Amino acid sequence: MSESQEREILTYELFGTAVRDIAQKVVDSGYEPDIVLSIARGGLALGMGLGYALDVKNLSAVNVEFYTGVNERLDVPMMLPPTPAAVDLTGMKVLIADDVADTGKTLEIVHDFCEGHVAEARTAVIFEKPWTVINADYVYKKTDRWIDFPWSSLPPLVDRRGGLAH
């Protein structure tokens, strides 16, 4: 099996198609979000695209990490400050955006954060894996393959641990 058959390859062009497809699903469902809450970093591009496609100007982001320090991994992710104030979201219809629901734990923790504070929270992802603990309301494609995203398929230009990445 060739590498391209083993992976999902998301190009920037296909990403544009995915954004419009997800946005159309949101429109068709009748859901009208007041805010798009992106999970950084992977959900930022989707959140921006959905903001434009759905004419939602209120965009926000939240950082979620599984790591607490060097080589220390948590069983569950935690939201990192600054988090959107729950009081600011009160009564809003929130659309949570991320690139992929793999384990689904990141999406779940943000959804749980919103629950009880907002009028309604729904989730949108480009890809969803079959083993996710939370199924997104809006999905472009379901896959069990490794995914190459256009923004992370090439190595960074800078290595933040020191020097240029080459």
Automatic annotation (TrEMBL):
InterPro entries tied to this protein: PRTase-like, PRTase_dom
Domain Phosphoribosyltransferase stretches: 8-151
Keywords: Glycosyltransferase, Transferase
CDD domains, alphabetized: PRTases_typeI (cd06223)
Gene3D superfamilies: 3.40.50.2020
UniProt cross-references to SUPFAM superfamilies, sorted A to Z: PRTase-like
One GO molecular-function entry: glycosyltransferase activity
Name by which UniProt lists this protein: Phosphoribosyltransferase domain-containing protein
High-level lineage: Bacteria, Bacillati, Actinomycetota, Actinomycetes, Propionibacteriales
